[in-house]
Amino acid sequence: MTNNVETTEMITCVIDGFEVTVPKGTLVIRAAEKLGIQIPRFCDHPLLDPAGACRQCLVDIEINGRAFPKPQASCTIPVETGMIVKTQLTSPVADKAQKGIMEFLLINHPLDCPVCDKGGECPLQNQAMSNGRPESRYEGVKRTFEKPINISSQVLLDRERCVLCARCTRFSEQIAGDPFITLNERGALQQVGIYEKDPFNSYFSGNTVQICPVGALTGASYRFRARPFDLVSTPSACEHCASGCDLRTDVRRGKTLRRLAGEDASVNEEWSCDKGRWGFKYISSRERITTPLLRGTDGELHEASWPEAIAAAAAGLAGKRAAVLTGGRLTTEDAYGYSKFARISLGTNDIDFRSRGNSVEESEFLAAIVTNLSTTYRDIDKADQVALIEFDPEDESPIVFLRLYKQSRKRGLKVTTLASHSSRGSEKLGAIRINNISELSELTAKSVILVGERAHETPGLLSSVAALAQQSGAKLGWVPRRAGERGALFAGALGNLLPGGRPVTDAAARVDIQSAWGVSTLPAEAGRTTDQILRALDRSELGAVVVGGVDPMDISSEALTSMLNSFVVSLEISHSAMTAIADVVLPVATVIEKSGSYLNWEGRTRAFDRALEDSLTRSDVRILSMLADEMKRPINLPTVAATAREIESLGHWDGATVTAPTQSLAPEVIPTGNQATLESWRLLLDLGTLQQGEENLAGTARPATVVISAARAATLGVVDGNSVSVTHERGTITLPVAIGDIADEKVWVPRNSIGSQSIVTFGAGRGVLVTVVKA
Amino acid sequence: MTTQLTPVLSAFWDEEDSYTLAGYQRNGGYKASAKALKMEPDDVINLVKDSGLRGRGGAGFPTGTKWSFIPQGDNKEHYLVVNADESEPGTCKDMPLLMANPHSLIEGMIIASYAIRANYAFIYIRGEVVHVVRRLQQAIDDAYQAGLLGKNVKKGYDLELVLHVGAGAYICGEETALLDSLEGFRGQPRLRPPFPAIAGLYARPTVVNNVESIASVPAIIANGVEWFQKMGTEKSKGFTLYSLSGHVTNPGQFEAPLGITLRELLEMSGGIRKGHTLKFWTPGGSSTPLFTAEHLDVPLDYEGVSAAGSMLGTKALQIFDETTCVLRAVLRWTEFYKHESCGKCTPCREGTWWLVQAMKKLEAGEGTTADLDKLIDLTNNIAGRSFCALADGAASPILSSMKYFRDEYQQHLDQGGCPFDSSASTLFTSTAGNE
Amino acid sequence: MAFSDKDLELMGTIIAKYPRKRSAIMPLLHYVQSVSGYVTEAGIEKIAELLELSTAEVTAVSTFYTQYKPHPVGEYHVGVCINTLCAVMGGDQIYDEVSKHLGIGNDEVTADGKVSLERIECNAACDYAPVVMVNWEFYDNQTPESVKALVDGARAGNPKGPTRGPKKLRTWKENSAVLAGISDGLANEGPSAGKASLLGLKLSKKAKGAK
Lengths: 775, 435, 211
Ligand SMILES: Cc1cc2nc3c(=O)[nH]c(=O)nc-3n(C[C@H](O)[C@H](O)[C@H](O)COP(=O)(O)O)c2cc1C
Ligand code: SF4
Ligand code: FES
What we know:
Chain A contains 25 helices and 36 strands. By secondary structure, chain A is an alpha/beta fold. Chain A is globular. Chain C is globular. Chains in contact: A-B, A-C, B-C. The interface between A and B is medium-sized, with 37 and 31 residues. The structure holds flavin mononucleotide (FMN), iron/sulfur cluster (SF4) and FE2/S2 (inorganic) cluster (FES). Iron/sulfur cluster (SF4) binds at residues 162-168, 192, 212-214, 216-217 of chain A.
């Protein structure tokens, strides 16, 4: 990590008789925390603008001998030199003020703690115990509201429990930029609410449930399911995307009940997106595989014992030229297992972690450039501008979006986006949309370029990005969609790379790894890409393939059929299209059931422990190690911990690197008439495998629409909401229209939403010619 | 010695067209702004500072000083916002002023805007006064027509003036709530600092002044500092509008030098209504602690009233005679504060909700003496704890009535109900309830 | 109800008055009431669209202010001041009697849609207590009888004109347009000032004359 010593002025003040020195601008309430003095609070939240609304945090303040006539809200006042603060611990005035406020807060609070989700972890309950009056003097009528209202399919609101701290409304406005919940009415009737026709469909709504200091906001999936004291909590890392969120997983008797955002100031601060929070039902899906399966002579899969299955897999692989394909959500340790297994047990460099579109240009870009990137969230915080290249942060890496939004709101950070059209996210960022990378200007060493995984779909674009970063000195970040990609790259799960960024074709690099692995040779020729592997399997140039967590539909519509003639070993969580054709299926653990780590887009390690103690399932790397033993070409990775140690010991390569790609941008095909060039990306909430089984979450997905330009809409004679059909020789997608700022010659559809799976239907995510007609 | 009335703003309200541009100009209107526009802006600020004019919206902050807080040469837009929300119970001076003499405000705004280098000015008027809105809008339109507003008010100096109509929320009289409301948000008060002078409307330097404060400026420019200083008391200079209402023979508006007493005003206007005696009164609206007959000679200037334990406020003198039940009066005000609480902070939102219930019980004669102490304690838990001064206002009538009329509260408890006949305090001869 | 081109044009001029368009939300809400009589869903959605706000943000504002009505009010909306001073001097009695007379309570509308009733707070006319506002026009020094006659007139279609205001009482929608900033040309009707407003001036003149 770089050393960021910033010269901030320090201020010393006195709180309850103790001196404390804090950076200028620190609020009294937080300076007190530094001394271990907890001033009660409700509306205060360190990441929200101060509101001073609940008045629970009143303290007595005196500055240079001048006392404030009234107690002051410590959550709104920055410390000053010469300030003397007396909290409830030393000032009877502050103590009485706080008790008075607490009494007011409770008069209209239902005291239904026994049936409230928050009971046991409720700031109101806790602070009422520590700072409240033992008995209420209130004899009046409590305010009541009609029982809970669904403010979205996943969040419910019990208004009578609400203490009107406005954390939720401030969060949605200030942090997420989604002001769909607001304070309505006035005075004692004030209440949180939505406009009935427009529910709280924010990708970040779950955070409001978490920061609500009472049980007013609850998540539909957790409501009434558990009491906090029944739960066992484990710190975890999110498997959904490359943002790298710190999470907490709460389990009761073997069942995951909820996930909460963990705190990591340098990554997700205290937030998570709703997919990370609520997308965990897949773990307990009915499709889950719990025992190894072998395809019998009858063509069906049959349960088998582990030794049987391992033996069958080893036998099937023996003597065949085999390749490895892995999915995007492997932990670094598992990816390393596959990487080593390919090289040692299969004797090949034919391994690729990109279970999605890919190109040779991208392989070069990854090996040459990405392995050395060290751009971080902090760089976004300090950037003079940020350029987004084929990357929609809100849909594809939501915490990156939150960082950008924070800076855009705080200091008007300039954001430019190379994208087919302005998404809701880029509108919130006030992003300037460009059509060509050459339109980027004024990039400096303080600028940040964030390039998405979709960039490989435009031949020459990654080369241009690399060159641009090089020329301008701008910091570059590569933000893949999936959590495991950066780790897999580091682990060498790519045809041209060995672990630690070592080029396969570099003899010294190979020697380095050979000695670490205790083998005398390693294959020296760069391996195939995913596309090339599939082609080779199809043509029987390869006879077997080991796949880990791959959905072939993510790659292309033909991927599955390419594998039909090969021997397939599938390491999987649940039954899928892949297991349907596999010869041997080996069940693996989900993130909740195993330990491991990811590298997020920054290259930062996100380690986690298993959250389920008595889990019998094994991590991929353990199974691969067993298989390698059986094949008599051991990889010696018996545990995740051992794997992690081995990766650590390899370190990062600082020798020669792969040369960066220098492909030039190809001219795009120009469509005519009702033709258009296809554009698409995946919306955050869509048909993704890991979102299966969570209907409440799915209920807040953005609707699938076809985005066309106003001019095209006029030509077609359609307005927003009318249906149009997008057709390619292989199929048609018909959806309602949303007119956007897209170029006239383009059309956009979501890549994997209900009614719109462009890869399945068109065999491509971008670039192909389609026709657009009124449906 | 009796203090003489000094009609300045109201000097020609009895003319049929006092509210028109012609009527105003006939009475010397827009000479002061012409004069001020020839001065250096800073000199205008200094002149107003020297005059000793203090804000007439309630707090009495020196107007020129407020203007001088606007950072100069900061290359930011500056704004002038006039507070015409006038919703404090008892306060009824700005509305008649705007109905009869809207141009005095516009002229004052031209001078003030020029002084603080604002090119955009707003009047935030409460929404429940359509005819005042008509008059004011016409006056603005006419001033534009006459070139008094708009482009090149003075060569190279443009001034836009927008009338913004509220929609029923007392809290929007609080200046930061007003600014939020004017920006298109819920009218809830803002955290201070930053103060409006640094980050007000649209986060730009902004002066917020009461109607009467600004409308008083042209006369000061026209007649000079000395003229103004001859009126009033040592620290409370000039003339002002006192509004007399309630159980008096003749309610109405009186322009007088600061420091006049209620006794003098009553004497000249015909006194308490016939056959009755003064029981309690507010010196400056319902948010200012009550006075009684013992305060008849308190000089009604900022210092005098505050030395006697209340606040000059808006000089809304609401007079109640002996037929009035103080509990009923205070309860009704408490209901007002509950209704008008913006809801942002706990003590105000929940506290006024509770106070109403507690007061209602007492009015009905339910409870014990301990409940009286509880009422005081609750009120003290609200006063000084809330986000803005609205809740302090809510506490004033309760605490002051408890101070002077605790017996009457006790009497309700002893009798198990209200000892007063409410019909006796109405102005009607008909008997109540016998329809 | 959809907004006509004329409506949209007027809404555009309202927005154009302000340096930042969000500021136009209040006059636009008044405008919506001038078209529909209350804040309709169509109105909220239109304002949200025009000002680029969420519908929730518009709702948050419209529900904060008491003059914006979530339901239709009468053609003549009668507000009886029941704040302390007016209440004590007869406002309570006026309210009770009129409420009984009309058979409606607070925030209710007569079946014919002509008159609605509201208990209002101090309306800055205390020197004319007891005060009643109809469509936010001043009716000074009222009695139960005068207000009953007033509402009867309103139901019959010829309400008495305000004390300080235009000769003829305008409807709720018409006055809402004035609040939205659209002039009705009636500023010159009615007196410059009422009797109470002139009291000080009169006494001063008398004193000077006496000297
Ligand atoms: C609850 C509350 C209501 C207020 N209402 C008004 C009002 O209606 N008119 C007004 O001029 N000032 C009102 N004020 C005072 C203003 O906040 C502000 O002090 C004043 O407009 C400043 O103008 P001045 O300096 O000219 O007096 C109110 C203050 C509070 C706390
Ligand atoms: S719902 Fe919760 S977070 Fe939102 S205002 Fe109420 S108490 Fe605060
Ligand atoms: S925590 Fe300080 S006012 Fe709410």
